[in-house]
Amino acid sequence: MIMAAPLAISLGDPAGIAPEVIAESWLRREEQALAPFFVVGGAGVLRAAAASREIDLPVVQISAPAQAAEVFGSALPVLGEEDCVPSFGNPNAQGAALALHSLTQATALALSGEAGGVVTGPIAKSRLAEVGFIQPGQTEFLADACGLPHDAAVMMLAGPSLRTVPLTVHEALAAVPALVTRTLIESKARIVARALARDFGLPAPRIAITGLNPHAGEDGRMGTEDRDVIAPAIAALLAEGLAVTGPHPADALFAAHARASYDVALCMYHDQALIPIKTLDFDQGVNVTLGLPIVRTSPDHGTAFAIAGKGTASAGAMIAAIRMAGECATRRAA
Prior knowledge:
Layout: E1 7-10, H1 18-27, E2 37-40, H2 43-52, E3 59-62, H3 68-72, E4 76-79, H4 93-112, E5 118-120, H5 125-129, H6 138-145, E6 154-158, E7 163-166, H7 176-179, H8 182-200, E8 206-210, H9 225-239, E9 243-248, H10 256-259, E10 264-267, H11 270-281, E11 286-290, E12 296-299, H12 316-333
Parallel strand pairs: 1-2, 1-5, 2-4, 3-4, 5-12, 7-10, 8-9, 8-10
Antiparallel strand pairs: 6-7, 6-11, 11-12
Helix pairs in contact: 1-2, 1-12, 8-9
């Protein structure tokens, strides 16, 4: 098997829970069969975060990603000297600057091929904006770094029970109907199909597409978008040979028997996609960015400043994000 380069992990906001769950992920590397990884910056923060969980964390600072694999078995590799004073639960400009540096460097290493992919720790976007971050979020940052339009980077939430893709993401619910277009549905479905084939080993992924309205509109009695926009998009995708079905009433699509009939659900808006994944797989949910030339995953949770440094945050989603990035990177390397 061709092995991918080590994964680069961006630190996220050092005042949040990312440093401690990264430390625990390294501690559980063998138990969880994680691919080798290194963290960009924050050696002191990582040591302090590990101590808050009573983890004796050996850290070795490396000067090049290629050194990570040889270090990984006995210590957590950290690339570079950049660091800040630990301030768990109290985000500040110094920490935001470190988070932005870590994200920028980790992305560049994935683009150069020195890293097999990037796993991004959660950030506080308002804090990053104070130090020069101009994108709405990390997904858009990755798209810009790859030279792609923002709508070419597709968010997928993945867990052991379910994969979902929101067609529209951080939009007010009142704005969603006008944003649901045939072009957007067809474009995102194609990106999802290609990515699941390339990165997840599903050569003909089954895509279930939800309706927008209750009961998928009931043939226009509860809204016409399902009949006039979503159904024609599905017909066009079927004509291209994609394995798509729908529009499905969203209230029944996530029952256990229904989930067995598809590989991913393409949903019309944020909560339609995120409520089921967070209900079923909250501690193991992974945010995967599809459509990029690099592998990118992230735990599907935020900075959780309120519990940072208290030793109570679950590392499950970070472990799942690292595992998924390693699996995707290995498929691409092959």
